[in-house]
Amino acid sequence: MIFWVSICLWLAACTLYDLKWREVPSALTLPPLYGAMVWNAINGNIAVVLFVLLLFILADVPIRTRGFANGLQAVVFCLGLATSPEPVLAAVTMLTMVVVWALWKLEKMGGADAQVLLALALVFSPAILLPITLAGGVQGLVSLLTKKKTIPYMVSILAGASVFLLAHPSIF
Question: What's the pLDDT tens digit per position in 140-161?
């Protein structure tokens, strides 16, 4: 219960920053992401952690020289499937990481949103993204009906994650 409340408070703080300044400081998003990566490494999901680290590296590598990095990414993906006690979950998690990373790289999502989604998916599994996506759809409809150009997506992340955590109170 304490963990659930702390997650919701963290997401609420991120949401307040996003609503007020349209920017969430890295100090609010990176420590939880790194913590989620350490937690996964401790729990034996080292391939997933390496995969996420390679995504960070790919963010700064020019497209022309990405061949080696992309090949390394494919090798880590295959190793993750081969060494994971739950290969399907590892595959879904890594594919989720690629989709979130691609949305950020294509500038369809902010960096803070991507970091928060990666951290949540690493800690709770990619299943947490379903209620977040549904909340995003509702948010999009509200935005369309109120003729607002944008509403920070962190609102949907907070709403969807809260619904997920309420539906799964025994996760931790």
Answer: 999 999 988 888 999 999 999 9
Report the alpha-carbon distance of residue 167 to residue 85 in Å, rounded.
26
Q: Which long-range contacts (CB under 8 A, 24 or more apart) does 3-10 make?
A: 3/171, 3/172, 4/165, 4/169, 4/171, 4/172, 7/161, 7/165, 8/158, 8/161, 8/162, 8/165
Question: Distance of alpha carbon 116 from its chain centroid, rounded?
Answer: 5
Q: Distance between CA atoms of 34 and 82, rounded to whole angstroms?
A: 24
Helices (H), the chain: 2-21, 26-42, 46-60, 66-83, 87-105, 111-124, 129-145, 154-167
Model pLDDT for residues 28-81, shown as the tens digit of each residue: 999 999 999 999 999 988 888 988 988 887 777 776 666 666 677 778 888 878
Q: Are 93 and 80 in contact (CB under 8 A)?
A: no
